[in-house]
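Dock copper (II) ion; give full complex structure.
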Amino acid sequence: MREPTENTEHAVPAAPAAEAPGRRPIPRADALRLGAVAGVAAVAAFAAAPAAAAAPLRAASPVRAATRVPAAAVPLPGVLDLYINEGYARMVDDSLVYQRGFGDAPTARNAASPSLRIRPRVFTRDGQVVTSRTYPLGAPVPANGTPLPLGPDAANVGQFMIRRNYWASYFPARTMIAETGSTVRLRVFNRLNGPHELAIAGAGSGGGDLTTGEIPPGGEATLEFDAPAAGTYVYYDPTNEPVQRALGLFGCLVVMDPDDAWKVAPDQAGFERQWLWVTHAVDPGWGDIEAAGGTVDPEVTPAVPRYFLLNDRSGYEALAHSPSRAINLAAHEESLVSGYPRQIDIRQFGEDIDAGTIRAGQLVRLVNPGLVYHQIHFHGNHLWTVRRNNREWPREFGVVDDDGHVVLQQWEDVVELEPMDRKDCIIPMKRPPDATDQVWANRTTAWKYPMHCHAEPSQTAAGGMYPGGLVAHWELKSMATED
Ligand SMILES: [Cu+2]
């Protein structure tokens, strides 16, 4: 049931911020925009950084001997380095498509495995940057992604008692997690021939954006800021919006309170574990234009996405039906919602039953850094949407916004997700309402339900190959068998 975590792998030592002589805290307003400079001068922006020369060089990712190995920068304690790289990413039909991304290490354009997304990192309150796919750090990780229950619910046949504040959750590549009270320190290297930028939508004071500002070709920039309020954020390159984002320059920042790590936000919905679902739509035509040195003008060349990804997987790979055990395991851990049924009214956020147990569902953070409107549709259970773009929706006196959307917490079997949208939803993991007693009492295997996007083109790959696109499923487990 318990597996060793990867929490300590590649851990960066804590920045001795408090002890560093001459450290002057950077006022928040100043920290929001430290600006971009070419060369290494930006290092000076981190006044607290100890002697960089003492830190060991980080090895570049392995490449073929014939390929020139790009040099990685000397890492700084407590600072996450992001490399704006380019390369060719494999799609679900084995096509190679030109993409860009914020990677872990400098890689060449022709690298077999270009670094186009970071491994998940956690910025802790005590100043560390920890490489970890799971959070909370140190919490037990659910095998295959599925949290085991505490035990049967004696009052409700076929249902289970859920552990309170117990299980860690897995996060996909591209994720940064920041604990509230932490300071996020980023250094961004632009390795490409055009200007780029890293911005974080809605993470600034007053709900504004944070940004490095423009980073010239070959240049670097730093960005340091206090973790914003608990919530779900998108970091991305707003250059020639939405082109650079669509080419892959995006990721997610999730902010959580480490003292209350099983809630969406303070006083908000509790959950058993959480899932971060990041959608992406890939237009190979746009990639071809930029790869050839051109600049996409969306007016001249409207986007025609041909691949639709969930946590960077599509179709049979997103569904964990691929020949690769590693891909299948990652899909189960990061995307394919699973758990044991529990008696619940999800509108009672985190109702205590007995000590150590809770009535709660699972949180799905839906994020769309891509190009197209998605319609996230679940069979089996409806979802209860609690927040959009980190704003709580009301429980009563709902309103209709300027776009005609109802703003009210409600049951939804289709959750609309506009480009740059973030919605926090709870899936109850409950007995499906139309399962009769006789059927339910005789259940012996897991019940699996589809999730598919109702925007039908997103179900395809390369214009066909249905269902090769944005799909998933979720599972209500059964203790009756080892399913
Ligand atoms: Cu359906």
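Observed: The radius of gyration is 22 Å.
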